[in-house]
UniProtKB/TrEMBL annotation:
It catalyses: nicotinate beta-D-ribonucleotide + ATP + H(+) = deamido-NAD(+) + diphosphate. SUPFAM superfamilies: Nucleotidylyl transferase (SSF52374). It comes from Lactobacillus kalixensis DSM 16043. Catalyzes the reversible adenylation of nicotinate mononucleotide (NaMN) to nicotinic acid adenine dinucleotide (NaAD). Coiled coil: none annotated. This is Probable nicotinate-nucleotide adenylyltransferase. Belongs to the NadD family. Residues 30-185 form the Cytidyltransferase-like domain. The keyword Nucleotidyltransferase applies. Pathway: Cofactor biosynthesis; NAD(+) biosynthesis; deamido-NAD(+) from nicotinate D-ribonucleotide: step 1/1. It holds the Pfam family CTP_transf_like. Keywords: ATP-binding, NAD, Nucleotide-binding, Nucleotidyltransferase, Pyridine nucleotide biosynthesis, Transferase.
Length: 213
């Protein structure tokens, strides 16, 4: 796959935000991932991107079988979807879309975005990515085509090396060094995850006995 020339955009200006908000159609942020489990860093990134880019909504799309990660262990897709719903239901601009779970098989973002842009071509989609995803995006399936279907948005993490191979809009967000892996490890070792995930998610994990193995 040939990579496009790296162009790192400066922080969004007020004029650019006005232009974005005046584009026809709805402005939709897309956050994909295993969300195993969803945690506060996911939610903060989505909120920062939504407010700074003036998005109408952010859609959380849990994958079925991830392409570049190991599949979740001992947690069902229904569990992950339920935790996402619990985490986002109090924000009217957050939506959980189960497109990839319903489609089955290995999840590729390009398949999802082809479907969405064909179904609602009037919308403008913004693919919101963490720093690690930014650096690996060029390895995603059909990355060149995907970069044309969406606006790429990177969540800037202070001190984290960023080497995007595609044009990127950067959004600064609080530096919350947290991962789903760390959450799972904490649960397995009996460490509290209070304030690391929404309370309803924590209660669901405890009720279902998730991540204890």
């Amino acid at each position: 796959m040939s990579n496009s020339r790296c162009i790192e955009k400066k922080p969004i200006t007020k004029t650019e935000l006005q232009i974005n908000s005046n584009r026809p159609g709805r402005q939709i942020g897309i956050m994909g991932g295993t969300f195993n489990p969803v945690h506060i860093a996911h939610l903060v990134a989505a909120e920062q991107a939504m407010t700074k880019l003036r998005l109408d909504e952010v859609w959380f799309i849990p994958d079925n079988i991830p392409n570049l990660k190991k599949a979740p262990v001992n947690v069902t897709p229904k569990d992950r979807a339920t935790m996402l719903d619990l985490a986002t239901r109090d924000n009217p601009k957050f939506r959980v879309k189960l497109l990839e779970l319903f489609r089955g098989g290995i999840s590729y973002t390009i398949d999802t975005m082809r479907y969405l842009t064909e179904k609602a071509p009037q919308n403008n989609y913004y693919l919101i990515m963490g720093s690690d995803q930014v650096n690996s995006f060029h390895r995603w399936k059909d990355a060149d085509e995907l970069a044309k279907l969406v606006t790429l948005v990177g969540i800037r993490r202070p001190g984290y090396p960023q080497d995007p191979k595609y044009p990127m809009i950067w959004v600064d967000a609080p530096d919350i060094r947290l991962s789903s892996t760390a959450i799972r490890q904490a649960v397995a070792t009996g460490t509290s995850i209070r304030y690391l995930v929404p309370d309803k998610v924590r209660e669901y994990i405890e009720e279902k006995g998730l991540y204890l193995d």
